[in-house]
Amino acid sequence: MQITDVTVRLVQSDCGRKWTLVQVYTDAGIVGIGEGTYSHKEFVVARMVEDLKGAIIGQDPFHSEAIYQRLFGGGREGYHTGGVMFTSAISGIDQALWDIKGKALNAPVCALLGGPRSARVPVYSHFGGRTPDDLVRDAQRVLAEGYNALKSDISIAESHGPKATRQQLKNIDAKYRALRAALGDDIQIMDDPHALFDPPTALEIARLIEPYHLLFFEEPTIPEDPDGYARVRAGTSTPIAGSERLTSKYRFNDFFRAGAVDIAQPDIVYIGGITEMKKVAALAETYQVTIAPHNTKGPVGIMAAAHVMAAIPNPLIQEMIAPSRIPWRNDVLKDPLVIEDSCLVVPDRPGLGVEFDERELKPHLVS
Ligand SMILES: [Mg+2]
Predict the structure, then answer these.
(1) What ranges do the domains of the chain cover?
(2) 278 in helix, strand or coil?
(3) Residue 81's pLDDT is what?
(4) Which residues pair with 121 in a beta bridge?
(5) Has residue 75 got a pLDDT over 70?
(6) 125: part of which helix (H) or strand (E)?
(7) 3-state SS class at 30
(8) pLDDT tens digits along 263-288
């Protein structure tokens, strides 16, 4: 089989992002689909895919490892100088190659990766609010949508970083106290301050929220400082998560060796696709680190990450934008995304198992 063409389409979602859909065509008539969405830089990634296209036309789509190496290494045209928009483009192509393989072999991607069929991947969604009452009300709304795990940015919404005042710390404590009192102990809660605290402040907050048993405290400080993460992690029993912005196994290895995280959050798009995410999960396994993919993508990116989660030994939970925020998301799919008991059901269909209904998708396409 040979790759004959690569195209990109942008779909305007309701969350400010444009799903960046990469189609890879073959001489066997099989078309693979992948997603390279990098928020607010979608046109750049689309152009990057166009730029990489020449390096893969004529290649066998089954050679996904060699194609990843060729693209990441820059082939004859460059050398490891990429960055996140570069790896996002590679990811869109890589996912599409796995989709082609699954379709050609009539097997779901998770089965090709070593996982069971029809796996269920735990997922979480998001909530927010200004006051403790607002937060409780919004959390209950998300729980009613079928989730039992949810994340907000309470810590950073209160203080804005990089420091926090005594009063802001008290307010953070009051909000988590109200949430636990209202939701009980069995709901999983997470906090994401988007890397905006310095290490001493992050550590103070991580300690402050220990009584509320969060599933994790995410990106406590900047990812450029793995030692800062390690300093926070060493001083608290609150599990520390992070690494959504890292773009290769080499950076993840630096993170793990520093003892930066309990939970790694590779993004299937930024990391460069299924091929590289599987390797990051294996590296994490050697450090007893679990995987909680960052995922703010459309249906293709959601499923690409879920297929990997179904096949690795160290899955924890996957991020997923709740259906209520993009009410038409399932309408543009031939088969809807199914969430049961706060788990995403990985489709037992060939490839990634995501096909669009072209008529329904058309009004959402960016021309
Ligand atoms: Mg985050």
Answers:
(1) 3-108, 112-352
(2) helix
(3) 66
(4) 344
(5) no
(6) strand 120-126
(7) coil
(8) 999 999 999 999 999 999 999 999 99
364 is catalytic: no
- Quickly tell me which residue has 């073959």 as its tokens: 26
What is the whole-number distance in angstroms between the Cα of residue 184 and the centre of ligand 1? 24
Ligand 1 centroid to residue 135 C-alpha, Å = 19
Residues 152, 43: Cα–Cα separation, whole Å: 29
For 141-166, what is the mean pLDDT?
95
Query: What does pLDDT average to over the chain?
Result: 96
Tell me the fold of 112-352.
TIM Barrel (3.20.20)
Contact 367, 322 (CB under 8 A): no
Closest CA to 322 of 34, 157, 123, 134: 123
CA 241 to centroid of ligand 1, rounded, Å:
9
The share of the chain scoring above pLDDT 70, in percent, equals 98
- The pTM assigned to this predicted structure is 0.97
Q: Is the pLDDT of residue 170 over 90?
A: yes
**Residue 26 identity (one-letter amino acid):** T
> Is residue 11 a contact partner of residue 365, using CB atoms and an 8 Å limit?
yes
105-124: pLDDT as tens digits: 999 999 999 999 989 999 99
Q: What is the pLDDT of residue 80?
A: 59
Closest CA to 191 of 267, 208, 200: 208
The arithmetic mean of pLDDT across residues 218-247, rounded, is: 97
Which residues are within 8 A (CB) of 203 and not within 5 positions of it... i.e. 6 or more apart? 220, 231, 232, 235, 236
* 40 in catalytic set: no
* Residue matched to tokens 């998301």: 329
**Catalytic choice (80, 160, 213, 294):** 294
Per the structure block, which two tokens stand in for 195? 């890397």
Question: What amino acid is encoded at 100 in this protein?
Answer: I
Dump the DSSP string for 295-341: ----HHHHHHHHHHHHHSS-B--EE---GGGSTTTGGGBSS---EET
The CATH topology of domain 3-108 is Enolase-like; domain 1 (3.30.390)
Residue type, 46: A
User: What pLDDT, on the 0 to 100 scale, is given for residue 9?
Assistant: 98
258 burial type by CB count under 10 A (0-12 exposed, 13-18 middle, 19+ buried): middle
If you measure from the C-alpha of residue 197 to the centroid of ligand 1, how many angstroms do you get, rounded to a whole number? 13
Per-residue model confidence (pLDDT) at position 78: 58
